[in-house]
Amino acid sequence: MTVTDAPKIVTSRWDLDDGHTIERYLETGGYEGLRAALAKAPADVTEEVKSASLLGRGGAGFPAGVKWGFCPPGVFPRYLVVNGDESEPGTYKDRILMERDPHQLIEGILIACYAVGCSQAFLYVRGEMALAQERIAQALNDAYAAGYVGKNICGTDFSLDIVLHWGAGAYIVGEETALIESLEGNRGMPRLKPPFFPAAKGLYMQPTIVNNVETLSNLPWILTNGGAAFAALGAENSKGTRIFAVSGHVKNPGVYEVEFGVTTFRDLIYAPVYGGGIRGGHELKAFIPGGASAPWLYPEHLDTPLEAATVGKLGTMLGSGAVVVFDETTDMVKAALRLVRFFARESCGKCTPCREGTSWLEMILERILDGHGRPEDLNLLMDVADNISVGLAWPPTQTTICPLGQSATSPIASAVMRFRDEFEAYLGGPAEMTVEVKGAAFVGKPTPTVQDLSLETTADV
Amino acid sequence: MARFTDANLATALEIVSRYPIAKSATIPLLHLAQEQDGYVTDDAMEHIAELVGTTPAQVLGTCSFYEMFKREPVGRYAINICTNIACQIMGGEELLHHAEEKLGIRSGSTTPDGLFTVEDVECIAACTEAPCLQVNYRYRHRITHEEFDQLVDDLAAGRLDDEVPPHGTLARVRQHIPADRAAGVADPTVNVEPVWLAIAAAEEGGDGK
User: Fold this and answer.
1) Minimal CB count within 10 Å: which of A337, A440, B147, B162?
2) What are B97-103's contacts with CB under 8 Å, separation 24+?
3) What pLDDT does residue A455 have?
4) Per residue in A42-85, pLDDT tens?
5) Which residues of B28-43 are buried (b: 16+ CB within 10 A; e: fewer)?
């Protein structure tokens, strides 16, 4: 079991009762990263962030510094849009970052806007998060009064307004182009990429950087301590630390910042300082490694490091850092139905395979659970899933504008391929399944060893 | 009362002024309308359309897309119980059924006295604190059936009025950008390099980025 002594980079103020106030923030190193950034040229700040190899923490895991470089030269104004619309089932980190350390996020926004040359920032907080909205509003009001936000920040030529914006309940708005539509006052329906890559044609058709709350919250530490110090933590392709929410059937459900890339699922689920193991008298059946959209993993995968590329080779993803643990009492057909119902409810309705497919998946599963299932329903489920994401492969194929539809196929393919007997029990007998499935996590390929994946590791892993 | 009051109109105009394009204020103004009346009225949507320069139909189109906006009266307290995956396996569905029994209503409806609306909702980002719920978007973590009953009794008796405002009110702290500190909105139709980038480029003697 490995619990490394990596510093707390983004959660250092979570234990303080007043970590959200500007007074405490300034006493604990607040706005020093901004001052360090302002002492450099904007391009050098981008280089510092690139040297940290900070991967986006929203789900897609794209390098933050590289993303910034996609804005076309000479086209202004550029905007920054902060994605605080955390709603992926199982995910619980951005809300705490906004509630307990809003100034850290504000400082991260300032650093990003200075580096990229964004003239205005919009902080989009999920509508349901009233406390986060209050804390951020207060923090912004205090930061304006103290000269950290607004005109001539810290007496320099850098000026920026940060506008607090809030949503109204729609998971799809976490998708970056839907977020922009929503911020423009519209229904939150995704835009087609290309041509609407936000860095080129985003908010008001201008170059726009969309970054996640946790991603930006790392920037003050990186600018204060240097990109190299950040990159010294973690593994080859997953640097720094990362927040994981461990929920479900563990002894200590909680939100933990761990060293990225070297900590394993076993550490996260079983270490006494993290999940503490499966609740008394029960054993692990399966776990979701990265939010509702991720294909499931099983006990044989526990020693996999929390490293993006490694988990990708298993046919799933770390996604949004949401680990949901199931013990042997879990009815996997019910679990699959609940997850599919989520995607059916949250489908925006723009693309047919998602709008129709997710609803049919829900209805077929309900029929099976109600005891009215037909023997051919198992194959029908997989056939519908295969029509939403052809081949049920990993990385998934996409028949829609955004990835919501294909995400609904992850729990279906996982549950059917691994727990077919549970479906057959509801169906009252053996059921044929002829749909061809390609994703590694679905077909249960043997776990590759760490050597197979040619990873650099520490001795303890 | 359905169009904005004078005080709320002033707030609405302040919100609109922060955006380069007024229509971006649509969702914040819908929240303001819901805070004023407890739900979003047709008159409010017409007023919002005037304020953001669009049509009432477009405001309705936006309003009807989002779960939080109610276009008919709901209870003074909207209790949203999460039944998504992490809560489902920790008793969220049982909690929802208990709530329905306690309040004597089905999920999605309101008690006859207009006090409570109960709904099953999707993940509200408190997965490690399952089962969880929100009352008017204020959290309750790891809630037992007994704690639920107590919560309902406390709300009905007005004992939680300080913590839980009536339905429609979200944040009780608003952002205010002081005029002497404002950097100003960034007009998307004016292609000007930010001054700090231009200065850095000049110092480098290069072409900027």
Assistant:
1) B162
2) B98/B145, B98/B148, B99/B148, B102/B148, B102/B149, B102/B152, B103/B152
3) 46
4) 999 999 999 999 999 988 888 998 999 999 999 999 999 999 99
5) bbbbbbbbbbbbbbee
**Run of H or E including A322:** strand A322-327
One-character DSSP codes across A168-219: -S-GGGGSHHHHHHHHTTS---PPPTTT--TTTS-GGGS-EEEEEHHHHHTH
CA A193-A194-A195 angle, 5° bins: 115
Q: Which domains are assigned to chain B?
A: 77-156 (3.40.30.10)
In this structure, which amino acid lies at residue A369? L
Q: What is the pLDDT of residue A353?
A: 97
List the structure tokens of A404.
């919501």
Touching check for A47 and chain B: CB below 8 Å?
A: no
Residue with tokens 């029908």, as numbered in its chain: A380
Which of B 161-190 lie inside 8 A of A, CB atoms?
A: 170-178, 180-188, 190
Q: Test A157 with B128 for CB contact under 8 angstroms.
A: no
B195 chain-A contacts, CB cut-off 8 A = 157, 159
In B, minimum Cα distance to A332 occurs at B89
Which domains are delineated in chain A?
22-230 (3.40.50.11540), 233-327 (3.10.20.600), 332-443 (1.20.1440.230)
Which pLDDT belongs to residue B208?
43
Contact A166 B31 (CB under 8 A): yes
Contact A168 B67 (CB under 8 A): yes
Q: How far away is chain B from the Cα of A395, in angstroms, using its nearest Cα?
A: 23
Radius of gyration in angstroms for the set of CA atoms belonging to chain B, rounded to a whole number: 22
Rounded to the nearest angstrom, the minimum Cα separation between B188 and chain A is 6
Using CB atoms within 10 Å of the CB of residue A111, give its burial: 0 to 12 exposed, 13 to 18 middle, 19+ buried. buried
**Sign of the torsion formed by the C-alpha atoms of A291, A297, A299 and A303:** negative
- Is some CB atom of chain B closer than 8 A to the CB atom of A345? yes
ipTM: 0.97
Residues 246-305 of A with CB under 8 A from B: 246-249, 253-255, 288, 292
The SS3 assignment for B176 reads coil
Query: Which residues from A are below 8 Å from B190, CB to CB?
Result: 77
Give the torsion sign (CA, B108, B49, A193, A399): positive
Condensed to tens digits (0 to 9), the pLDDT of residues B130-158 reads 999 999 999 999 999 999 999 999 999 99
Here the tokens at position A394 are 């990993």
CB contact under 8 A, A205 and B204: no
CA B100, CA B112: separation in Å to the nearest integer?
13
Bridge partners (DSSP) of residue A239 are A234
Backbone angles phi, psi at B146, to 5 degrees: -65, -40
Q: What is the pLDDT of residue A60?
A: 81
Tell whether B1 is within 8 A of chain A (Cβ): no
